[in-house]
Write a structure and sequence with these properties.
The protein has helices spanning 2-8, 10-17, 21-25, 28-48, 63-67, 71-77, 91-98, 108-117, 123-136, 146-158. It has 166 residues and is an all-alpha fold.
């Protein structure tokens, strides 16, 4: 379950970018955001005694490193990923567009809840949940650029205090 959840942390980033998966993966800033989400989740899981199952060709602990690679290297390593349909997004994005309730609380929110349970902060996933919920509520009507979104997430990660109270 946790192995699949880690890969699905991507869904919130797709909603925030409003870009198809392939196009989003081609942008290193979006990949860095996903890397931060996954890295935080892996830390929480490790501290909780959970070991996520391997459900892709890359071990979960190596995914953040792979996502941070320069575009040319990432594209060469992830070539098969780019053979996907140009328009594929995510079920969460489809729900967002249709006005249905987002599953963000069951994905990134599950990481946040586990962090709360073991008293470990989850500022990156907290911020993703906050931003997706804000967009779903119509409070954030525009889509952030990859650079803008990365800066927002990076600041949340490095800001003292609880990101939930910002």
């Amino acid at each position: 379950m946790w192995g699949k959840l880690i890969l699905n942390l991507n869904n919130g980033v797709i909603v925030l970018s409003d870009l198809p998966l392939k196009q989003r993966l081609e942008d290193q800033h979006y990949r860095k955001i996903l890397a931060l989400c996954i890295e935080e989740a892996l830390g929480i899981l490790k501290s909780s005694g959970f070991k996520p199952a391997e459900i892709s060709k890359v071990k979960p602990k190596l995914v953040p490193t792979q996502l941070r690679l320069p575009n040319s290297i990432f594209n060469a390593l992830a070539g098969s990923m780019f053979k996907i349909n140009e328009d594929v997004r995510s079920s969460m994005w489809e729900d967002f567009v249709a006005g249905r309730t987002s599953e963000i609380d069951y994905l990134n929110g599950a990481v946040c809840q586990l962090g709360t349970d073991i008293d470990m902060p989850t500022p990156v996933n907290d911020k993703i949940v906050e931003l997706v919920n804000s967009k779903s509520d119509g409070k954030t009507p525009h889509n952030s650029s990859a650079q803008e979104l990365f800066e927002i997430i990076f600041r949340a990660r490095h800001q003292p205090g609880d990101a939930k109270t910002e």
